[in-house]
């Protein structure tokens, strides 16, 4: 007998529409080192990562705040799958709105980390 389980239901959180994403909101979201680190890891992975995947130097409530800022600015998309909250970079949307911005910022962050020995 084969037992099949239904896929965990997903529930998406509210996100800004493409027309609502503003450059100053994106820049604000990426101006924090913790949020920039999250975005860098998401960009490297290219897929969805659970919030618990990230080893951040902040409390759980502060981590939740950082993910909310990224979501509300339009930088990431978040969805619940079962009890896990998954985050993915909205790369296509950001590249359409601000061509080259994300790559330039991530490259600059990498160069700074090398320069500072991080």
UniProtKB/TrEMBL annotation:
SUPFAM superfamilies: Winged helix' DNA-binding domain. Residues 15-109 form the HTH arsR-type domain. The keyword Transcription applies. GO terms for molecular function: DNA binding; DNA-binding transcription factor activity. The keyword Cell membrane does not apply. Keywords: DNA-binding, Transcription, Transcription regulation. This is Transcriptional regulator.
